[in-house]
Design brief:
By secondary structure, this protein is an all-alpha fold. The chain has a single domain (5-232), classed as Ferritin (Up-down Bundle). It has 8 helices and no strands. The longest helix has 30 residues, at 5-34. The mean pLDDT is 93.
């Protein structure tokens, strides 16, 4: 069955995004060995990198089932984590907070929503596996952040997260907001496109707002981080 160009574009984009996530997770896991993280955390990071590769493969299966023929384009210049701070400690904690605590937490809600709408077998199969894994990825992020803060003898990691959190929230909002939602262009998806796991921009924005209240604020609060002020001052 040949789907619309929007369906093909979205699943091809997901192939590339999941592959990039695999590279980022491997990179973060290497950093974890450099800061002598718990072996359990390192092993879980490697497992997650393998999950992300599987997600990329599943996304390509959906792309093919929808009639896609072109291979994905992987931007090799975007497969390494950027250096953010003056020390590896700062990079590790900021990447953990943004990619896993923020990114994977909202991803659980998003993929749950997409899975509920999708009825095409290939799309449902991929979204079901991705959703199941995202729950574990989210939990890894919060566990890792907790460990990073508990072993933060001088408070440098905590201060870095507090300083960077408004900018992290702003970047997330640009991705999930009304304008920036990745698979949600101005025209709402048709019923057929929804069956392939696409959603309108308003759904992305609503999911983010609910995730802020339900997940981010209480979870950061339990770690002693004031997320409400960071969300209000995001820019």
């Amino acid at each position: 069955m040949v789907a619309s160009a929007r369906v093909l574009d979205e699943w091809r984009r997901r192939v590339e995004a999941e592959y990039r996530s695999a590279a980022f997770t491997q990179h973060l896991t290497l950093w974890l060995t450099h800061v002598a993280a718990s072996p359990d955390l390192i092993r879980e990071g490697l497992r997650i990198a393998d999950d992300e590769l599987t997600h990329s493969e599943l996304s390509y299966d959906v792309y093919g089932a929808a009639g896609g023929l072109e291979p994905p384009t992987i931007d090799l210049d975007r497969l390494a984590l950027p250096i953010r701070g003056d020390s590896l400690d700062i990079d590790v904690v900021c990447v953990t907070a943004e990619l896993f605590c923020l990114g994977e937490t909202v991803a659980v809600a998003l993929f749950s929503h997409l899975h509920q709408m999708a009825s095409q077998p290939a799309a449902r199969r991929a979204l079901e596996r991705i959703l199941r894994d995202e729950v574990r990825h989210r939990d890894f992020g919060w566990t890792l952040l907790e460990w990073l803060l508990e072993t933060d003898a001088h408070g440098h990691r905590r201060r870095a997260v507090e300083l960077e959190l408004p900018a992290m929230f702003a970047r997330l909002e640009r991705t999930y907001g009304e304008v920036g939602a990745p698979s949600a262009p101005e025209r709402p998806p048709t019923d057929q496109e929804r069956e392939w796991g696409l959603a309108p921009a308003s759904d992305y924005a609503g999911i983010l707002r609910r995730t802020v209240e339900r997940d981010y604020l209480p979870r950061f609060g339990r770690l002693g981080l004031e997320a409400a002020a960071a969300w209000r001052t995001r820019a």
